[in-house]
Amino acid sequence: MGGDALMxxxxxxxxxxxxxxxxxxxxxxxxCNNVKLLTSFQSNWHRADGSKxxxxxxxxxxxxxxxxxxxxxxxxxxxxxxxxxxxxxxxxEGLKNKIxxxxxxxxxxxxxxxxxxDSGEFRGWxxxxxxxxLGWLEDDINYVRRAxxxxxxxx
Length: 155
Known about the structure:
By secondary structure, the chain is an alpha+beta fold. About 40% of the residues lie in helices and about 15% in strands. It is built from 5 helices and 6 strands; from the N terminus they run H-E-E-E-E-H-H-E-E-H-H. It has helices at about 5-10, 60-75, 90-100, 130-135, 140-155; strands at about 25-30, 35, 45, 50-55, 110-115, 120-125. The strands form 3 sheets. Strands 1-2 form a two-stranded antiparallel sheet. Strands 3-4 form a two-stranded antiparallel ribbon. The protein is globular and about 50 Å long.
């Protein structure tokens, strides 16, 4: 197989992916998949060369997500003091100690509202660490299964 044919075969693996950067003045929102002006995105940091860097989700999608989260927080009571995270099974006190030890999440909320980002449906209260883990796994059951299989084989 020639080098050009091999390159085309490899590129086909990624044909569903879209470029996040679409030009100097526009950007693709990874949430709504619309190309929008850069001013539609938050710029919270600067690159080493001093130029602005923009988030991948537009302000409109961020605001819509915040509305859903705020509504769910009003509708759903905050966990009681004896509540345990349904994933790690650690209590509020245990989580406070864990966060103080590793010092990574000191200023973050202990319990966070977990919800389906597509439907807006409340799923439960999770500790910040477990919620972040699900986020990194993109709430994808297949990723979670592969992580579980990986750990079962190696632990």
